[in-house]
DNA sequence: CGCCAATGGCTCGCAGACATACCTTTGGAG
DNA sequence: CTCCAAAGGTATGTCTGCGAGCCATTGGCG
């Protein structure tokens, strides 16, 4: 009865408890640079509503982030929970999961996103957003690079106009970043990466799906082989 | 702070409660044909373990499927919960969600899966599996077609060797099927579909990624335009 | 200067989900 | 014919998470 498909369908319904999943989401929004250092998270009440979780759970999650020095909270009107300027290094990774699994899904999602985005007629705001992210990434320092890189790739996913695809890319990127945090980031790689970014964004803005896909594929293959090399 | 990516990251952490999600999973395994009519579901204890949910919750979910005449349970050794030969028609759909969203993600995932599968060296078992699913679908009756079609597409996803990708395809297909259940399935479409399936599987078995991707893209575009037409 | 809206901080009772244990039924193996 | 392993059926106590309400703090607005 299709033994292998069962592994997918009968996988755990819950990745963890509500608390753990909430921590994970907030962590993602910070690590992927969606909420930048110095910026404020949505209020506890708003997060509770949007995440579909009680405010108590949100608070416990935020407390956990505070203890790990990711955020600080201030009371009073115009207070809130703010992302720290200096972020802790990620905890020494657990397991390298299934490398093939992560890289396969990432490539499928992101090359597909690039192609789809290039095939759409983008509004002025979207075009500006893409250019801004490209600029951000190319002028970024080494320490900020991973975050700015993720913001750029997320912007590409957003440009497809599919929320589900954006969510899938965010999830996939988070898993890939866990691996990438364990290999060194060198200046030459960064320069190369920037050149590839330029080509990806240009072909999307020019409405050239085939080139966008190919450029993204090459870009991803680059880091994929770096990973395969370092993690043996 | 990247307003749109927030929609993805701050989406609800839970699609529903444990009971609802469990029903959803079991339903998927039946509707996608992963467990065929007459076949037995894994035991309650095994499902509880694999789904990461208590046995009580599994039983409540199964009870719900019984009441809707999807399955019947028999006690005693060699008993279990069996999928009924005649399945109820799907409940009249709720909302058409975001059509663009569903179709975009489906196309990205499935064309990517086809390309990836074609780029791998498949084992004899996998090759046989793909041929078997193709045969199944092509000789299927109208009433069984959707299920057999899903089995074939899931087999393609499995052939990528990525569990995460297979899970994503299953999820996406389920959402697409909810829409497809509301449009008629006609003989000519079916014949056309079978021809496309043939081409997809052949190019995967031949190790031709570009053709596999293109064939899958055409196949999906066919049903996509059907959908867009019928649902206005 | 005082008000007050919006934010984080806190508590308590209820419902859902869980773990665990035990009971009942069934049909093949010995 | 008997035994018993494996499956579904049932019951109970615990704990997590939720909802709802209230308190404490802060800084801009009138």
From TrEMBL, chains A, B:
Keyword tags: DNA-binding, Transcription, Transcription regulation
A Pfam family of this chain: GntR
Name of the protein: DNA-binding transcriptional regulator, FadR family
InterPro entries xrefs: GntR_C (IPR011711), TF_FadR/GntR_C (IPR008920), Tscrpt_reg_HTH_GntR (IPR000524), WH-like_DNA-bd_sf (IPR036388), WH_DNA-bd_sf (IPR036390)
CDD domains according to UniProt: WHTH_GntR
Domain HTH gntR-type: 16-86
Translocase keyword on record: no
Alphabetized GO MF terms: DNA binding; DNA-binding transcription factor activity
